[in-house]
Structures are given as C-alpha cells and as structure tokens.
Prior knowledge:
Elements: H1 20-32, H2 39-49, E1 58-62, E2 66-70, E3 84-85, E4 107-109, E5 121-126, E6 132-133, E7 142-146, H3 154-169, E8 174-177, H4 183-186, E9 189-191, H5 217-227, E10 231-236, H6 238-253, E11 259-264, H7 280-299, E12 304-310, H8 317-326, E13 331-333, H9 347-358, E14 360-366, H10 371-378, H11 395-408, E15 416-420, H12 423-427, H13 433-451, E16 457-462, E17 465-470, H14 471-475, H15 486-495, H16 503-512
Parallel strand pairs: 2-5, 7-8, 7-10, 10-11, 11-16, 12-14, 12-15, 13-14
Antiparallel strand pairs: 1-2, 3-6, 4-5, 5-17, 8-9, 16-17
Amino acid sequence: MEADAACTVVVAPAPVAAAAADDKALQQKLFQLKLKPSSRTLTALVKKASPKPAAKKKLAGGSGGYVLEDVPHLTDYLPALQAFPNPLQNHPAYSVVKQYFVNADDTVAKKIVVHKGSARGTHFRRAGPRQQVYFQPDEVSAAIVTCGGLCPGLNTVVREIVCGLHDMYGVTSVVGIEGGYKGFYARNTVELTPRSVNDIHKRGGTVLGTSRGGQDTAKIVDSIQDRGINQVYIIGGDGTQKGAATIQEEVQRRGLKCAVVGIPKTIDNDIVVIDKSFGFDTAVEEAQRAINAAHVEAESAENGVGVVKLMGRNSGFIAMYATLASRDVDCCLIPESPFYLDGKGGLLEFAEQRLRDNGHMVIVVAEGAGQDLIAKSMNLADAHDASGNKLLLDVGLWLCHKIKEHFKKKASFPITLKYIDPTYMIRAVPSNASDSVYCSLLAHSAIHGAMAGYTGFTVAPVNGRHAYIPFYRITERQNKVVITDRMWARVLCSTNQPCFLSHEDVEKAGQDDDEPNVPLVEGENSLVKASPLLL
C-alpha cells in the first residue's frame, strides 16, 4: 500500500432487505390475528420491534494523521445508481470558469493553526459542483422547509435555492413546506418558482412559515415518499438539524433516492465547527441601534443607566460582538460568564462607581445570562418549550428591578434607568448586504451537494471554505463564547468591567472549552477498518 493512500471505507448496506425476515414473521402473526396488514403497518411494527442502531460515522484516514469525516452518499445504499455529466459544463455563465468543478479529493481542514509536529487532523469534504451528478434535472422534485425561530436571511436562502436549482440545473419542480416540520403531514405544499420568490429577500421572516417541534419522522418520510420528493432542503438550528439527521436515516432505511440537506440557521451563532451562521451580521448591526439609543438616553440624564437585552439563549455572541462594535457599553453580561450583584467586586458596586466617574452607563445583557441567579431568588422550577429549549426568565426586567432597588436605598444618589428590549425587532428584519451574499453561497453549495448525490450533511464555511459537514458533527454540542479566549478579553478591556470570575470558574471554563475526542478510524462508532497508515 502506498504511503498516502486512503484507508478502506465501509458503508452500511441498504436496510430494506434486512427487514424482510421480520416482515414475514409479522405477516404470519397478523394473519393469526385475522388482520389484513398494510405495508406501513408492517414498517411501523418492524421499527417498533427493532432497536434503533446508533448513527455511524463515515471516516477515512491518510498519511500524517489525516482524517476525513465524510458525509453519506446515495450510492452508499443504492450502489447501482446512475451518474450523469453535470449540465453546468454547458452553462454559458459557468462553462468559461477555470477549474469550476471541485476536485474529488478536495477537503477543508477543521483546524488551520497547528504546530510543527502536529498531525494533519480532521477534514471535511469541500463543497461545490462535481463533474458528475446523480439527478437529471427533469426528475428532481425538491422541497424546502424552514423550522425554529426567525432569523434575517431566511427568505434569501429560500429564494436562492429555488432560483439556483432553476438557473443552474434547469429544475422546475420545487415546493415549499409550510409551517415547519409538521407541515409535511399537516399542510399542503406551495409551489415555488423563480417568479414567485423574486422579491421575498426584501422581507423579514419566512414566507413558508415556521414552527417548533412537530418532529414525527415516520409521517415526514411517508409524505416525502408519497409526494415523490427526492431532494429536501431543511433550514434550521441545531435542533432542526438533529431532526434532519433522523429523517435522512429513515430515508436510507427505506432505500429511497432522496438527498437530505441541512442549511444551519441560528441567530445566536451557536452552531459548532462552522465559521458563523447566516443572519448573525445583521443581528449585530441591528443590536447596535438599540445600544446607541440606550447610550443617548443614559448620557442625557443625571446618573442615567441604559439596559439593553439582546438575544443569546446559551451563547453570548450577539452581545459580545455588539459590545465590541459599539464601544459605548460599560458592562456586557453573557450566559457563559457568571456574575453576581452584591458584595465587593459585584455588578452593583461596579455600577455605582461607574456612575460616580462618568455620570452614566450602558449595560448589555444576553437573554440567557444570570438565569441561575434569577431562579434562585424567585424559587422557580425549569420549564421547556416545544423544541425542548429551557424557557428563560426575563433577565432584563429582573436586572432593572435589582438596580433600582439598590439605588433606592441611597437617597442622595438618584438614577434614571431606561430599559430597551429589541429582541424580536432584531430577528424580524431582512438580511443586510453581507448576509445576503452569504445566503446565496450557502444555497448554491447545498444545491451542488444534493445534485452530486451527497446526503445527510449541513453546508457551511469552515475556515473560510464551504464544506459538507456530517449532521452529527454540528449537533454534538453548542458553540459558546470562550471566556478564556482573547476575544472575551477584548470585551473586558473595552468595557473595563470586572471579570466576576473566581479561579475555579476559570478552571471549569477551560475544561468545558475542550472539544470532544473524535476517534480517528477505530471504535464502535466507526465504519473504517484499521489501516497501517494510522498506526
């Protein structure tokens, strides 16, 4: 074996035939009960009787510690699938582009800052058009669905998928699923054409509607199968992508020729691996407007305090970047960094000193900050929404109350406090220019991957290059602000606020920031046989 050859990749066989024996036994059992079984009844009973296998990883290794975390391909379980020349080679706009087609061996490194003796590390398959496709344009029946909360750019992504399929590949059959996942089985589809989506990018929200929850995988795949859909584009956050992963597994289990593609959407920018999610730049830009307003109010009053609550359930990226961009913020509070109110070095002591020094101050707080403090002070139990997210208590109102309560005890120190909550204003606006371009690139990369037969992946930039990332990679944990990193240190330098952290807090943060260990090619989750290259 040559030194730089790749090791063997083993893929799971089509599971449809594997269930035949179980089907026969169930047929006999149902006959004894004098029932007439339908194919779907059998499928449901087999699914209920058989334990669900753990999702397996498709890994390949190379020299120097190179590891490719690959994504599934339709030929993994449909080996006889026919390939066709990519019609883009005859497209007048693309045929003149040099090296337009991505090389089959192109990959994107997950980590680009390495040491001299470091292994090459984890890579992902590079996104882009391939020389061969596995769908003829006239056979494609695509569906698009938006799930979860709103985010700037949703309509832009929908528009670019529709127009990209039509303009690049000549696909004319595209439908929208209304109302999120449950729309697959509870609503009719809406036809999407380049004309009908022509100007939707100028509006906020999503023309398809959205919802949380509604994840009934069997019903969704039944709908996909009944409607003859063979490409599904799913736009949503980490919870939505987990749902997409189960849909792809069920599609593969049934042996359907259907590509399931995810496009990551989260205004909080809390999806791991990827550089950033679309809509984040717009959110930070809009957040600055609220901060500017709070600063004007605070500066214009005696001992003025402006409190701005921004989005950030578990990750404080919007608050952090808006603070850095504004330069008018005196204190930034995020979920990742604990804080306390009373006592030496507490927030209230800092606020009092800052008002004595400057005569005004602005506090930016992410919605997920201080939740433990609030729950403890109010003796409240946790509650969750339809997506399984913890329902947050209003940290903005609570913080305003505590600040007013503190200064009310100081008769000679009156304050004027203004509270601004722009949460839903920020996420309901159309995407700005930067995000609009980004949405187009995401949509086109998703289309190229689906047409090339890849499935079970999310598309996003990794270190500046768009890549196809396995679903499990972006759903294993959430991206969070690293409070032991230089970026958070820049915030502390900009605001001159206390760190609020004990030595134990810093040690714990350092441990939490460590990435989970990903096995190279061995282990129970791997489908790659050991190779001498990796010994």
